[in-house]
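Q: For a teaching session next week I want to show students how multiple molecules come together into a single three-dimensional assembly. I've collected the sequence lines for a complex. Could you give me the predicted structure tokens for the whole thing so I can convert them for display?
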Amino acid sequence: MKNIIIGLMALISATSVFAADSSSGCGMGYEVAPKQSLVSSSTRSLVNMTFSNTIAMTLGTSGCAKHSIVKNEAKGIHFAEANLNVLAIEMARGNGEFVSTFASVFGCQNSSAFGSMVQAKYETVLPSASTSGVELYNNVKAQIKNNATLASTCSLI
Amino acid sequence: MRLLLLLVLLSNLIYMPAAFAAGSLSESIYANLLPVQKDYWLKLLHYYKDTSRADGENFFLSPVGKTNPGAELEATIDSFKDPDAQAGWFKYHPQCVFRERYNFLKKAGLLNGVPEKACPDFDEWKTGLNADSITLVFSSSYPNNPSSLFGHTLIRLNQKGKTNDLLDYAFAFSAIPEHDDIGIVFAFKGAFGGYKGLLEVTKYYTKVNEYNNGESRDLIEYDINMTADELDRLINHLWEIYQTTYFDYYFADENCSAVLVDILAVPFNLDRINDHKRWYYLPSEMVKALKEIPGRIKAEHYRPSLKKQLEKKLAKLSKVELLETRMFTETEEELPLDYNQIPVLDGIISLLDYTRYRTKDNLSDDQKVLFRKALLRRSALAQDKNNTPEIYDQSNSPDLGHEPRKFSLFLRTEETHSLVGLELKQGYHDLMSNDQGYDAFSQFDYFTGSLIYDKKLNRVSYDQLLLLNLISLHTYKFYDPQFSWAAKIVADRIYDLDCDLCHRVSARAYLGPTIRPTPKMAMSLMTGVFGEATKNYKHGFRAGIGFEGSMLFQIFETIKLGFFDELRFDAAHKYKKDYYNNAGVKYSYFSGPQYEWRVESSVVSKFGSFKTNTWINQLNYGFFF
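A: Of course. Below is the structure for the complete assembly, covering every listed component.
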């Protein structure tokens, strides 16, 4: 957790360099925070609502980032933040495309074992309806480390 | 495959050195380019009819680059040679911003002796994309939302060695609306300008979430065959747009797909994929254009909307299970702590998930509690190990639809009058047209005009001038309780008075439920307000309440039948006496994807009486183009 906080702060500092340069640095696209389309601003807001400004800026998904390539270390957090709703559902069932993808961001090849674990530890990894994506990510990571099979096979933890 | 190889070989032509002395920077540089090189340069600059559609100043290195491709070429070469030059939003060296221009000019022999700059940010971006191929993603319309009836497209960059699609990056061109703009302002600015459109790069899962879940739209994914060189050129070009420019956004011809197809025209420069044939551009045209090139599309995949996923899940429930699902979600019945019916729990979860999106995250407190309980309870039961994808009807592919414009000829009788006429419709689809490739039983007609010749009167007149006729027959379901609606603005004929070739201006806005007893049938009942104005009316206008009922049947793939009845009461005057009714039956026969025959019969009552009527019969032949 501590490492993540430090990492986030470092990234925020880096991005704020660009954020400060509003005259020449950010340009058109980078001043527009939420990505919305003409037909559905309200639903876009709903989908993106899980992103706090801090997280979004840190991950280069909004604000003044030079580009939207997500850093490796932030991939899992970004995924958990963006897909919190669907992950909460698929994890309860222990299966699904988003759960499999979530497994892959931890480098877990055995998505069935991963699905089984997050289902069994559901209340631990998602302790409340308001659990954030970052919390979910960290909780799952901790549970992988506690799981003998996953700890030895998930390559990115 | 052979054709592809041929295309690859031909594509090398664009990099053949031009027949001029490299380094000689005169205005003749552009003039001396080979035609295929000129064409490529214009594509890189997004030229359309002598002007670039790119609107960001950073996109041009010459002050006149937007309208003068030769000057832009010269300025680009100059800037590439200047070691201190800067360009784009982040003030990189121009070589690091205009990557595809650089590669093109270098291979064309126009940058001999120019040292190449290191571009670490571009390299990081390109490496991060890790692209191996691309997929064109078509999104169906947003249910019951007319502003998205045309659909949407985006491009997914498939990562090398991937095990899933969700972590890929996606590119989309979207308008950036002001947050506080209301719907009518959206429409106005979309039509006449006012929004800026930007290339957006994001993870594909955000798009799946937005379209599949947030807006309940189907996604059809078309995997594209392309060479490594084509892919490279596409990514280079995406970067130069991404770093420099926006495009003024217009619904009609500078929309999400129009700009995207111009971007794809860079790597596919020898394919004619971005012919802008009309004054508007449809997302389905992009799919059609790529499908028409042999071998370009190698596979198709389908992602059903959240609504379709819910429907599939509910359809699998037994009657008792469905009743229980509805009991828990619609009444105050509490979910027992030891409840263990997996199908019902899955039903509750899917239903509340869909409701959450439909209500824009406005679940009641009770629903939120139930949702959490159902998730916790479900997690304590057996793992879902079914990895077999559900089967959905995928036959209604957007590329199969008829062309949007239509020209018709018709013969008509109006009581004792015989008429001949012709009609031109600018777009797009109506209730009696072939639904293949379109949303079934939908209508979005605009800019339609017709002329008639009345033989008895020996007069030519217009029959109707239609601005808009929109009917959204959204099916009313317990999990999606939305009304259908209709809106129409037209100048058309008056039949309820004894007045030959007389016209009025009419508008209506109706609302009501639609049910679909079978997928091939729709029944609708709507009511709302209308207004009519003409000098032929006693008071010059009518305004009141209208009702319309309709029944539509798709009998075979080639035949449609529709029954309509509309009753209008003029509430502005004596509404009990001031009314008229228009009942009709319509029959369509589709003799080919672009051809249709129609027989229509209607009876319009005289104003204030059901006893005297005007009978109208018509035979119509139309073709789409």
